[in-house]
Amino acid sequence: MLIPVLLLQVYDLSFWWQYGNGRGMQGRYWLGTIIPMLTFFAVGLLCLVPVRWQAAVHNLLRLCIILLNLASLFFYILPRYYL
């Protein structure tokens, strides 16, 4: 996960040094690192809770992601582009 992030930072810094302004981190370059970042985030959260609660916290994380997806769909995407 760190290699793509470091390569993107080097690319942005080299562009900054060559032209005097940075391009910023564009979202399309982060697309390949979304799954590893969220996986490490979920594993890190699970390591903070006791073993007996890990199953419940894991199911809670799943539910929260589903609710976030539904909220994004119904409150941001559909009204903005289809209504």
Question: Would you give an account of this structure?
Answer:
By secondary structure, the protein is an all-alpha fold. It has four helices and no strands.
Shape: flat
Major beta-sheet overview: none
Discrete helix count: 4
Low-confidence stretches: none
Which percent range fits the helix content?
over 70%
Structural class: mainly alpha
Order of helices and strands: HHHH
Considering the chains and any ligands shown, give keywords for the structure.
single chain; mainly alpha
Topology:
Elements: H1 2-19, H2 27-30, H3 34-47, H4 54-81
Question: What's this model, at a glance?
Answer:
With 83 residues, the chain is mainly α.
